[in-house]
Design a protein that fits this description.
This protein has 312 residues and is of the alpha/beta class. It has a single domain, classed as 3-Layer(aba) Sandwich (Rossmann fold). The protein is built from 13 helices and eight strands. An eight-stranded mixed sheet has the order 1-2-4-3-5-6-7-8, sandwiched between helices.
């Protein structure tokens, strides 16, 4: 009996060591990440003890810039295609939110929406922006509409791209999200991070999997391995939403574009119709055969809707 127990324990230890060997990853050095993902026009600005990665492009004289906020697990690069087009005529700013990309975690590990709203306020102050067109995807959309409630005088128009806020009623969720919510497993995820988990999570938010390149998965995977991001991802997933703010959405008077992927399984189009019902001054656009990240999966079609909206 004792031999059987010892054999089991040695086998278990061997399995653990094998998993660590195959899927354990150290944090990637910042120098290497910056060389790959912070080339011009990237810049960094000090905010609350963080060195925040951002990009400001386009017409510096534009008095009404567009500010874009990415979602959970993503980075400012999710708006690369939009920015390439918008910067021809507009000033475009985007940043890596704390916990993601090259910015890294909040020093106090406070990932409440209120803290993110304060962060956006400070970021805009560092850039001298007093009024803007504000857009956000998923978590970024939630931050955008909450910021609009907080500082309405700073927002001229609002763009909500598959935005969070209402109960999600997800029909499918990225595996990384699921693991990050499970005690013990979420701790393991901070040092054992299989690339296939990241790839599967990206595939989950796309409708057309053929549009997912290995370079795209590499970007998500590499930035996940920025020091502190894996632990921050778990911290962020522990935060609960304050649903009382949903009652205030009808106070948002700014013209708002509600832009949604019809095949979004993480935040279904039911949320799009709720925004459409509650917002007093909105335009609803549902993109067929598109998932949770329209600006990345279908940049031309989604940007057409944005350009039509901001030119009104």
């Amino acid at each position: 009996m004792k031999k059987a127990i010892k054999l089991f324990l040695f086998s278990l230890l061997g399995l653990v060591l094998l998993v660590c060997l195959l899927f354990g990853h150290r944090d990637k050095p910042m120098a290497a990440l910056k060389a790959k993902y912070a080339q011009m026009p990237s810049a960094f600005v000090a905010i609350d003890g963080m060195n925040v990665h951002y990009r400001a492009e386009g017409n510096a004289l534009d008095s009404l810039p567009i500010v874009l906020i990415h979602g959970t697990g993503s980075s400012l690069h999710t708006f690369d295609d939009w920015a390439a087009s918008l910067k021809k005529n507009k000033r475009v700013l985007r940043m890596d939110l704390p916990a993601y990309g090259l910015t890294g975690p909040f020093p106090d590990r406070n990932y409440s929406i209120e803290h993110y709203v304060s962060f956006i306020e400070e970021f805009l102050e560092t850039q001298g922006i007093k009024r803007c067109i504000l857009g956000g995807n998923s978590l970024g959309g939630l931050i955008a509409w909450r910021f609009t409630l907080h500082r309405p005088e700073m927002v001229d128009k609002l763009i909500l791209i598959d935005a969070a806020g209402y109960p999600k009623n997800s029909t499918s969720e990225p595996i990384a999200f699921t693991i990050a919510k499970i005690p013990v497993l979420n701790k393991i995820l901070t040092f054992i991070t299989p690339r296939f988990v990241v790839k599967s999570s990206v595939e989950n938010v796309y409708a057309d999997k053929s549009k997912i390149s290995e370079a795209l998965v590499d970007r998500y995977f590499d930035l996940t391995l920025r020091a502190g991001n894996r632990e921050a991802f778990g911290d962020r997933m522990k935060v609960t939403y304050d649903s009382s703010y949903l009652k205030q959405i009808n106070r948002i008077e700014q013209p708002t574009l509600v832009l949604w992927g019809a095949e979004d399984r993480l935040i279904t189009s039911a949320s799009a119709y709720r925004f459409h019902e509650d917002l007093p001054n909105d335009t609803l656009v549902i993109l067929q055969n598109v998932g949770h990240v329209p600006m990345e999966e279908s940049p031309v079609e989604s940007l057409d809707a944005v350009l039509s909206f901001i030119q009104k």
